[in-house]
Amino acid sequence: MFKLDGKNYLFAFILITSLFALWGFANDITNPMVAAFRKILLISNFESSLVQFAFYGGYCLMAIPAALFIRKFNYKNGILVGLFLYAGGCLMFIPAGNAMAFWMFLIAYFVMTCGLSFLETTSNPYILSLGPKQSATRRLNFAQAFNPIGSLTGMLIAKEFILKYLKVKPMTEAELSALRDNDPEAFANIQQADLDTVSGPYLMLGAVVLLFFIIFLAVRLPRMVAPDTGVLSVRETLKKLFKNKIYVWSVVAQCFYVGVQIMVWTFIIQYAERELKMEYDTAQGYNMIAMAIFVSSRFVCTFLLKYIKPSVLLTTLAVGGMAFTLGAIFIHGMTGLYCIIAISACMSLMFPTIYGIALNGMGDEAKLASAGLILAIGGGSIFPPLQGLLIDKANWFGGLSSVRISFVLPLICFLFIAWFGYRVHRNRKVM
Known about the structure:
Structural class: mainly alpha
CATH superfamily of the largest domain: MFS general substrate transporter like domains
Radius of gyration: 22 Å
CATH architecture of the largest domain: Up-down Bundle
Order of helices and strands: EEHHHHHHHHHHHHHHHHHHHHH
Distance between the termini: 29 Å
Number of domains: 2
CATH class of the largest domain: Mainly Alpha
Number of helices: 21
Oligomer: single chain
CATH topology of the largest domain: Growth Hormone, Chain: A
């Protein structure tokens, strides 16, 4: 599995695999920060969800430049650039916290995820190249199994070391507003203490990433060259892609999927807080349960793909997602929260399934087509602010609160994905 032409790549594989957990940690320590910033800084849900706009905007904008970079140079240099940007973004939390400036935190998130984009764009193909081609997919699946470990660790750190210790946690927004108006100095002291609490784990993360940077700088990795994409006519390839309706709709569906995933995992805390009067750290515990269900469902759905066509399974999962989202909108109490948690079971296999449908049957065009699917990650930067805006602006309607009404956006996303899966099934019987 790790040997090619007599060379043993096990050490390099272990090092690269550790990066999968490292970016999983960053992804899922960040989601609950949307709720934390909203209360610490007394900003709107729309403004606080700009954290996701900055985070996934960095992923989206840097993915293609990262791919071009590793083509021109090599995988190790791509990893070093990624680690440098990742650590730099984490360390930017120091001046951001000292200035108590939300826009500086957004820049820090953007820089950090530019680094994560480099790491993801570089590490996946590098893992594939470390050994025989016949075991490449198995190597990548094994490496990706460490991503949820990082994700769950990030969620746990957010719960136990940030959300639990926020001084604003027991106070209502009305109480905080009154304190800000009547005793600005006391309010500023609370803000500073809580921003320091938020920044602490990111600073520790930055130190760990810097350590990884030093390790990768010092070690000699196998010098694998990024695969030559050949001489492609970009204009002709783009024409083919835009004529391929399944591919075009796949990119849109992927955008909707990433959007729904980030919305559900971001606003579960606001739902629990507003509907059930639950504290942030307790709500984050339910988010961790959702992630565990997501990971478990991925294994189940992977097994089901042996017997069910990808498009049929995708449609079924999307319909299930719609049903649970309707439950979150219309069912009160803990049952509504359980419905949001159950949505994760339906999302588990959507990203790779849509990705496979989009590139199915493509030759050289797949190398350019994958760029569109990378850009679709931008859905994670677009939809959460829209949901935050709905929470801020939507009025009670038919006995439904604004946070319940806001889940109509995930519902629309699942509706589109279900339509997409059905359309693929009608047009490609093998899918």
